[in-house]
Design a protein that fits this description.
The protein is built from four helices and six strands. It is α+β, with helices and mostly antiparallel strands. It starts with a strand and ends with a helix.
């Protein structure tokens, strides 16, 4: 039994059983916990992440650090590395004349990488209005 950092979102109980411990590495620019427990509420059994961090810290992360926000440091690093890896895979399987549609293209960084490598029949679709802009 563990005294929880946050109360159960369902019944507000402050005790739970540890089901799994998560430990991960994050870049130094990311100010989030690298360890937390997945717990089951002692009272109602609801399972959730017992993370010792405030909602404000998560809000800051999603605004400034996650890879899906267009104006973040991490996005720039991620895009350079991952898009070239994706291109290396695509060039092995598709000719430059292939018709390619990227569903859920986000800001279109894969398409820009393909365009840089002379792919011309490329289209992107994304449900996010912000991403499409």
């Amino acid at each position: 039994m563990k005294k929880l950092f946050r109360s159960c979102p369902i019944c507000k109980c402050l005790n739970g059983n540890i089901l799994y411990h998560v430990s991960m590495s994050l870049p130094e620019v990311i100010n989030l916990p690298t360890n937390y427990d997945v717990v089951s509420c002692e009272s109602c059994g609801f399972t959730f992440a017992d993370v010792n961090i405030t909602q404000d810290a998560y809000n800051y992360y999603y605004k400034h650090s996650n890879i899906y926000n267009q104006n973040t440091i991490l996005k720039a690093v991620y895009d350079l590395e991952i898009q070239e890896q994706r291109y290396s895979f695509i060039e092995q399987h598709l000719s430059r004349n292939s018709k390619i549609i990227d569903l859920g293209c986000g800001h279109g960084t894969l398409l820009l990488t393909l365009q840089k490598h002379n792919y011309q029949n490329i289209t992107g679709l994304d449900p996010s209005d912000e991403a499409c802009k």
